[in-house]
């Protein structure tokens, strides 16, 4: 009898332990929304969305694109990554190009080789040349880290320039700073 | 040491924990913002305390894009993060594609902050702003 009770209790304990170790079902949240994870070890999707929205807002508010005949052709050029992780800068530039394209003010030059070759072929057939981009978009992403005994902080600085005829006709910058409390053992 | 003495000693520490923003501006503003009459649906009274919409103004950016500026006031003494989302609508009241997603800003106690948004397309004729407490 005692052995039977012990066996039952042990089985119940094992079953509880296995249930406790099981992971929760996954669920959907809004991308870059208020319920996504924020961390200090990388640029989160919310940071990319915030930066691109802020920069394109500033660009459109400045009226710089009014100086050109619209839609103005733009080449997305070098976005330098000076952070500690490898990032795909399309996470920044693509969102900006989508908004600029929808605004009717800018058309981004395609980065696809086949598309460029087709455009050159069509221009050649029509005895014309493919129009060169009037503006280029360049930028840089910088990471800056700080910490004290209690808090770990990271700042990502997103810099963007719109260039024409060799000069930056517009420059914008967005800083995103995140903090996290350090754990019991200081990390 | 009695309770009264303890409280008196603790007062400076408590006061330092709640720093708020003082603001200086013109007594008679020279700018003439185009203020917009707005309609509000408040479901979170606590959020309305630290992210109170004090006014909405409107202008035009880049020739033909609607631009909206919302003044948000934190009437509490504590720093808070607030999530926000602008949604844009065309003249038929249909949501414009590629409306931006959620953003977040921090606002100090007693601070008035200005949220600025430019419509993503000239088709946008109306807007809606949603505010949400920091739920993380």
Structure description:
The complex is a heterodimer of chains A (187) and B (136). Chain A has helices at 2-21, 45-62, 90-103, 113-125, and strands spanning 72-82, 106-108, 135-147, 151-164, 167-181. Chain A is of the alpha/beta class and 187 residues long. Chain A has a single domain, classed as 3-Layer(aba) Sandwich (Rossmann fold), CATH 3.40.50.10610. In chain A, strand 1, helix 3 and strand 2 form a beta-alpha-beta unit. In chain A, helix 2 packs parallel to helix 3 (90-103). The model of chain A has no long low-confidence stretch (mean pLDDT 91). Chain B contains two helices and six strands; from the N terminus they run H-H-E-E-E-E-E-E. Chain B has helices at residues 3-16, 45-50, and strands spanning 52-61, 65-73, 80-89, 103-107, 112-118, 126-133. A three-stranded antiparallel β-sheet of chain B has the order 1-2-5. A three-stranded antiparallel β-sheet of chain B has the order 4-3-6, with no helix packed on it. In chain B, a hairpin with a 3-residue loop joins strand 1 and strand 2. Chain B is elongated, with a radius of gyration of 19 Å. Chain B starts with a helix and ends with a strand. Classes of the chains: A alpha/beta (187), B alpha+beta (136). Chains A and B meet through helix 2 and helix 3 of A and strand 5 of B.
Low-confidence stretches of chain B: none
Name of the CATH class of chain A: Alpha Beta
* Element pattern of chain A in H and E: HHEHEHEEE
CA radius of gyration of chain A: 26 Å
Strand order of the largest sheet of chain B: 1-2-5
Distance between the termini of chain B: 41 Å
Give the number of DSSP strands of chain B.
6
Order of helices and strands of chain B: HHEEEEEE
The portion of residues forming beta strands of chain B comes to 35-45%
Helix-strand category of chain B: alpha+beta
Q: Biggest β-sheet of chain A, characterized?
A: 5 strands, mixed
Please report the number of helical segments of chain A: 4
By CATH's scheme, which homologous superfamily of chain A applies? ABC-type transport auxiliary lipoprotein component
